[in-house]
Each structure stands twice: as structure tokens, then as C-alpha cells.
TrEMBL record:
<keyword id="KW-0479">Metal-binding</keyword>
<dbReference type="GO" id="GO:0005737">
    <property type="term" value="C:cytoplasm"/>
</dbReference>
<dbReference type="InterPro" id="IPR016193">
    <property type="entry name" value="Cytidine_deaminase-like"/>
</dbReference>
<dbReference type="InterPro" id="IPR015517">
    <property type="entry name" value="dCMP_deaminase-rel"/>
</dbReference>
<dbReference type="InterPro" id="IPR002125">
    <property type="entry name" value="CMP_dCMP_dom"/>
</dbReference>
<dbReference type="InterPro" id="IPR035105">
    <property type="entry name" value="Deoxycytidylate_deaminase_dom"/>
</dbReference>
<dbReference type="InterPro" id="IPR016192">
    <property type="entry name" value="APOBEC/CMP_deaminase_Zn-bd"/>
</dbReference>
<keyword id="KW-0378">Hydrolase</keyword>
<protein>
    <submittedName>
        <fullName>dCMP deaminase</fullName>
        <ecNumber>3.5.4.12</ecNumber>
    </submittedName>
</protein>
<dbReference type="Pfam" id="PF00383">
    <property type="entry name" value="dCMP_cyt_deam_1"/>
</dbReference>
<comment type="similarity">
    <text>Belongs to the cytidine and deoxycytidylate deaminase family.</text>
</comment>
<dbReference type="GO" id="GO:0004132">
    <property type="term" value="F:dCMP deaminase activity"/>
</dbReference>
<keyword id="KW-0862">Zinc</keyword>
<dbReference type="GO" id="GO:0008270">
    <property type="term" value="F:zinc ion binding"/>
</dbReference>
<feature type="domain" description="CMP/dCMP-type deaminase">
    <location>
        <begin position="5"/>
        <end position="132"/>
    </location>
</feature>
Amino acid sequence: MNKPDFDDIYMELAVNMAMRSHCIKKHVGAVLAKETRIISVGYNGPPAHTHNCDEEWPEKGCSRDSKGSCSLAMHAEQNAILYAMKNDAKVDGSTLYVTLAPCLACARIILSVGIQKVIYLNSYAEYKGLPFDEGIEFLRKFGVEVTKYEGTFLEKEIVDSLV
């Protein structure tokens, strides 16, 4: 029996976490792991104890801020990192698996908490219509290893729904 690679397991879990998102615009999932252990998981959406956008505003989601972003949403990476920190998990030296490359704001957080590697599935720049992935460039500039996921999934049709 072939054993799946941990990168494949963790990225597939990130894809499954994305399906938990309550965001109307984009579903994103994240897994934070160290060596062969999961530290935390997260998905994008509003902070706990607020509103679930797809339930409260099913047609268009929550209101937008001055830059056109969701006014309530927290990014999947932020949720995974915050939950780990809230539970006193050590994230220094860990790897973050995320279905959408980190934005610049998330990249700053990733660097600040000591995450050493980021593996992403889809480009944030392509999703937003930007010329390049600012978050990826920022992380690489400051020594964080960043890789686009090129592995294989057991459940290919699940991943296709995120592209």
C-alpha cells in the first residue's frame, strides 16, 4: 500500500477546511503543521460569535470596507495562527498549507510568528487580478520558503471546486 505524502494529506485537509467557510466571495482553508503533526486548522470567515455571512446575507455577503474587502472576514491563515496561539501551540518553525497564497497582510503575520515554510494551492494575485503575489514575494525576501503545491489529491473533484 502506498502511503500518501504529508504535504498531500495536509493540503487536502486545507481544501476540506475551505469548504467550511461562510464567505460568499471565496472559500479558503489552512493547515498549520510541524514535522508530522497538525498544530491548527482554519478557514476564512467572520470572527467567532459574530455573523455567518452566507446565512445572514446570502445574496451578497457582508458589507465591504474601503478597499472592497469583506468587513468581517478573517483570512484562513489568520484563523489557524490565532487558534494555535490561543492554545499555546508553538508555531515557530512550522509549515503553513493554504489553498490561496497569502496576501501581504497575512505574509507579515506569517513572518512575525516564525513560520518557516508556506505551501499554497492557488495564486492570490490571479484571484484578485493583481500583477504578482505580494505576499509570496515578501515572504521570500525575508527568508521564508514558499512553494506552489504540485502534489496529487485523492479527491480531485473537491479541489476543482476551489479553482
